[in-house]
Task: structure prediction
Amino acid sequence: MFAALVISGGSSAWIAGAILLISIGVLAAGYLRGPAPRGVRIAGFCLKLLAVLALLVCLLEPSWTGQRAKPGANQFAIVADNSEGLQIHDPGADHTRGEDERALVTGKKSGWIGDLEANFQLRRYRFDTRLEATRDFAELRFDGRATALGAALRSLAERSKGQPLAGVLLLTDGIATDIDDALPDLTGLPPVYPVVIGADASPRDIAITKASVSLTAFEDAPVTIQTEVTADGFEGERIVAQLVDPNGKVVKEMGGTAKSTEPFSFRFEVKPEKPGISFYEIRVAPATASTNAASQEATLANNRRVVVVDRGRGPYRILYVSGRPNWEFKFMNRALAADTQVQLVGLIRLAKKERLGALDFRGREGETSNPLFRGFDKTNEDTERYDQPVLARFNTRDETELRAGFPKSAEDLFAYQAVILDDVEAGFFTRDQLALLQRFVTDRGGGFMMLGGQESFAEGGYDRTPVGDMLPVYLNRRVEPPSELAYKLDLTREGWLQPWARLRTAETDERGRLAEMPAFQVANLVGGTRPGASVLATVSDDSGRKLPALTAQRFGHGRVGALLIGDLWRWGLKDAKQHADMDKAWRQMIRWLVADVPRPVDFEARPRPEDGSTELTIRAHDRRFEPLDNATVAIEVEAVGGNSTNAPGPVRFNAEPVAAEAGVYQTRFTGREVSGYVASAVVTDASGAEVGRAQAGWTSDTAAEEFRTLRPNRALLESIAKQTGGEVVSASGLAAFVRSLPDRRAPVTEAYTTPLWHTPLLFLFALACFGAEWALRRWKGLA
Result:
C-alpha cells in the first residue's frame, strides 16, 4: 500500500505564506533588539515561530491519503496442518504441537481471528493428505497419514483462481512428505505467511530418514540396502540397526555411534534367496533399549522402514553365436547352468559353406546334401546343403528355434535379451542381419557383447559395418603385437568401481586374485577406445604396454561390451579355485549385460506422497518391440507382509491407455494398510492373445515418512514465504500482524483520507510552544 501528504487549502496557502513572512520579520526584529543572551533569544524565536507555523497549518488543510484493503471485499485463508506429526511433544513441553496449534485457532489465543474477519472474508482449511474446507477448526484431530504441504498449496491456488485472495496464513511445522529439495509450484498464490508450530530444538528421538536399494551383478551380494539414521539426544550412544528378511529372520546386524548433529548410515549387502520381488525391514534402536523403549524416544513410528527388492524374474535369454566349436562356449554354458534365471541359447557353426562349382565333395551322384549328415534321421529339406554352413543349436526352446540359422526378422531376434558374438566373421551375416543387430541394441535396448578370437573385431572384418560402428573400440587402427604372447590382466579405476567386474569384496583379496590369474596368449589388439566408452580391464604385454581388455559403453537404448581376450578359457584350466572364479565372472558379466534390458511388458510403480496413492504405469510392446495400442491391461494388487494379515484379498482392476504416449497404460492405487504391495499385470492384444506379464512392488508406510524428522522445517517455510512475497510470523505476534494486514497489498483496495490539521494535538502543540516561550522569558527576567 502507499500513502502521501496532500495540501488542499487552495487560496488560503497565499494568505498563510504572507502571514508567515510577516511573523518571521516581526519576531526577528523583536528578538534582535532584546537584552537577553544570544542563545536565549534564538530559543525564544524558534519556539514562537513553531507555534505560529502550527496555527498556519490549519489554513493549508493538510491531510494524509493512501490505499488500503477494502473491508469485506477481499478473502484471506487460514490453512492448518492436521497431520499426525503434530502429536509430538517438544522438549520440556507438557502439550503437543497440535494442542498449541488448536489453541491458536480455537482457544483463548484466537482473538486475532475476530480482527481478521472484520476486514476480510475468512476461508478456513485443514490439510494432511489433501486440502479440505472446515467451518471452525473443531475437526482438527491430527490423525492425517501424511503432510502433503506442496499439494495443499497447489490445490489452494486452483481453488482461489479468479478470487480476490489477499493472503494465506499457514500453520504447520513445515515437515512435508511431498517436498524433498525443490520448492513446489507456487504460481498463482498470494503472499503466504507461515506460522511455525513447534520448537526449533528436536526432541530425543532415533529416526530412519532415508532408505535406498541398489542392485548389482555382484554374485555374492547382489543387493545393497543403504539407510540413513539420525539420533537426536543420543549423542555418543551406540545405535543398533537390524535387517530382517521376509521370513522375519534377522539377516544382519550392525552398530554405530550417534553423532551430535550429522546423520550416519548403515550399509547392508544381502543376497535374496529367491528372484523377483522381496520385502526387507530395517529396524533401529539404542543398544541399551529397555522394555519401556517408548519413554526414551518421542515416537517409535520412525524406527522401522520396509524396503522392496526387485531382482527381476527370468528367464533372461542370451543368444550365443560362434564361428567354430570352442572351449569358451563350453565353460560359459556350464557356468550359467548354475543361474536358473539365465538361459544360454547357442548357435555354433561346425563347417563353413562351400562354393558349388569349385570343389565337389558330393559322395553320391545326385546328392546335394552335406555327407556329414548322412545317416541322420533328417528329411532332404532339413539337411544342410553344400552352399549353406553347418550349424548346431544348443538349449533351444523347441525344434523350430534358430532352425533357419541366425534370425532374419526383428520378431525373432528381439525375443532375446542379449546377443554374444564369438570368433565369427562379419561375412557370416547378411547386411540386413548386421543392421538388425544394431537395431537390437538401439531400439530394443538389448545387450550386445563381442568376445575375442581370430575372427572377431578387425580380424573378422567388422570395420565399417553396423556392428563395428557400435563397438566401444576403434577397428581401423593397427597395433603391433608384442614379441612374447603373454598378457596379464588388471582392473582399471573404473573397473574397481563396478561390482560386477570384481570377484572379491575386499580390495586386498581382489588384488591377490588378480596376481594369481594365469597369463593369456590371445588378445585382439585395437587402436583405442571410443569417446564415452569405459575401459574396465586392461592387459599388459612384456614391454609394460597396457591395452584394453574389457570395455563397455551405452549405445542407443542398450549397452555394448567388448571382451578382447580370446582364450579366457585358459583361466579355468589352472586349478579348481580359478575355475570357480571364471564361472563366477561369466555369471556376473552376463547379469550385467541383461540388467537394464526392457521386457516386452515393463511395469513401474511410483509412489505419490502428495496424496498417498501409487501410480502404476505399464509400457507394452509387440514382438517387434514397437508400442502396443488397443491392448487390455489387467492388474491384480495384493498386500504382503507388514499389517497385511488383516487386509482384504487381492484387488483387481484394469489400467487405462495414456493419450499422450503410445503403448502406455496407467492407473492409481491407494492402499490403506502399512505393508508391502505386489502388483501383477497381464497384457493381451486386440485379438485376445497374451503379450506378456510383469510384476512391480512398493511399500506403503506413511508414518515412517511423516516422522522421518521431528525438527520443524523453518528453512522450507521461509523459502515459501520469500517466493510468494510473505513473511514468517511468530505465534506471539499474530495479533499485531493481523492489525497490519489492511495496510498490506490486497486485490481490492479503497482510498482513505485522514486530516492532519483538524486534530487537538495540533492546537496543543501550538499552545505548548507559546507556553514554553513565555516560561523562558520569565525565567530570564524578560517578561
